[in-house]
Amino acid sequence: MFCFQCEQTLGGKGCTRHGICGKSPEVAGLQDLLIHMLRGIGFYGQKALEKGQKMDDDTNKFVMDAIFSTLTNVNFDPERFVNYIKKAVEVKAYLKELAGEIEGTVPAAADYIPPMTKEEMLEEAKKFGVMADTGLNEDIRSLRELLTYGMKGMGAYGHHAHILGMMDDRVSHFFYKGLAATIDNSLTVEDLVQLNMEFGQVNFKCIELLDNANTSIYGHPVPTEVLITKKKGPFIIVSGHDLKDLKQLLEQTEGKGINIYTHGEMLPTHAYPELKKHPHLVGNFGGAWQDQQKEFDGLPGAILMTTNCLQKPRDSYKDRIFTSSIVGFPEVAHIQEADGVKDFTPIIKKALELGGWQEDEPEKKILVGFGHNTVLGVADKVIDAVKRGAIKHFFLIGGCDGTKPGRNYYTDFAERAPEDTIILTLACGKFRFNKKEFGTIEGLPRLLDMGQCNDAYSAIKVALALAEAFECSVNELPLSLILSWYEQKAVSILLTLLSLGVKNIHLGPSLPAFVSPNVLQVLVDNFNVTPISNVDADMSAILGEA
Ligand code: FS2
Ligand code: SF4
């Protein structure tokens, strides 16, 4: 196997024997084969679109879901990938027919048909790994992978928007164009740089769609205190990013004496009016994803993983963790769906059987709910405070958490931020410092959580609105982006920020292994993307104290 798509990759180079994330060589091979099939689907899908054919919704949905399934920490179940590959054969045949006669060269990948057993698929997969084409120019490979990983992130965002009934052709059609480009040998480095920027724009549209979907169905997040301590009684912990799963579970547990806790990236969901109105959505449990194995160990409650980040469940809780939707792990119970409705009966039974915590803990709470609607609702006050010098700077400390010790940088950075600065948080990186006390500036909390990684649109919208109010560009605002990346949604957001012309991003904890030296130089030269160094030096440089 070879995989270097996430920040955790072995030695900063690539996982070759077994994924650090727990991905087996078997799953890695099947994912390689699935991606190879998707590239061929991209070719025929793009040709069909160029001929003005209409793409059906199921096909678009399949492409998004299949690419999402290969994102880090989503699905570890080989059988699910075998099924995706079989389905991909049907989808490609359909698109080939739709595309009709092709003029010009047809890449070999487009007409490739895989064998139908898992064993044969694994043998075949060896031909299609990231490094299989040893003669490929490293910058071309780097840009193709950058685009592929960006699309994995957009697959996740698109999936979430789609299940809430929102989709846009510009988004769903880009997958065909982007995937086709990764097997088009006529494209130069410049073409692929341009295409990555085009992708960034399309992904901006996608995260806007997702924001519209979430806020139109569940309301705009409002500042909300969330209990972070245990309450007596049976409980279910809901992790991942899926608001629809949480809503359905809340409805199905109504009046059953079960408390619902969010975990990880589900923390910001407490702020949505249509979710918080359920009194048994009682609090948030635990920290970021990488702590789950020790936090779930022997837990007297049930756990639902709605999306990433899933880690290999320990035996102590394997019988009480459930997956749904795109997520999977061998021998872990999967919640089935019919006509958009999931039946959570097995997880409800399990929670009641386990009985839950025996006692209440002394209460502690934290504050969430500073999406774009709330922040822009006090924009006048914020702008006035900036003009008077009461607020000197904003730091968006956004992105993923992970296991590496170097990630303490982000905690240290938040703690070192001067008292006249505001810290905006986004995604799961915040768990390292969101329970600390940061105080207020003129009544405004200094730490404002803008939501999940899926809410990146909020941060961009606020930045664009502030730039308009101050009549300057985003790059001239007293705002610095201190980003931590782990998986491929972060790649898609980075490309969106670059495509919007955002410069001076501080990126860490390490740079992506799949970015070649020349491609990195393009990012540095054009956007001044800067690797994080040490907190004092970076803070001084940003605040002009150097
Ligand atoms: Fe965190 Fe993991 Fe949100 Fe990423 S829970 S790193 O895949 O999606 O952010
Ligand atoms: Fe390694 Fe990350 Fe790939 Fe997992 S997703 S195999 S940790 S590079």
From TrEMBL:
[4Fe-4S] cluster binds at residues 3, 6, 15, 21. Keywords: 4Fe-4S, Cytoplasm, Iron, Iron-sulfur, Metal-binding, Oxidoreductase. Its EC number is 1.7.99.1. Binds 1 hybrid [4Fe-2O-2S] cluster. Coiled coil: none annotated. The keyword Magnesium does not apply. Its cofactor is hybrid [4Fe-2O-2S] cluster; [4Fe-4S] cluster. GO terms for molecular function: 4 iron, 4 sulfur cluster binding; hydroxylamine reductase activity; metal ion binding; peroxidase activity. It comes from the Bacteria. GO terms for biological process: response to hydrogen peroxide. This is Hydroxylamine reductase. It comes from Geosporobacter subterraneus DSM 17957.
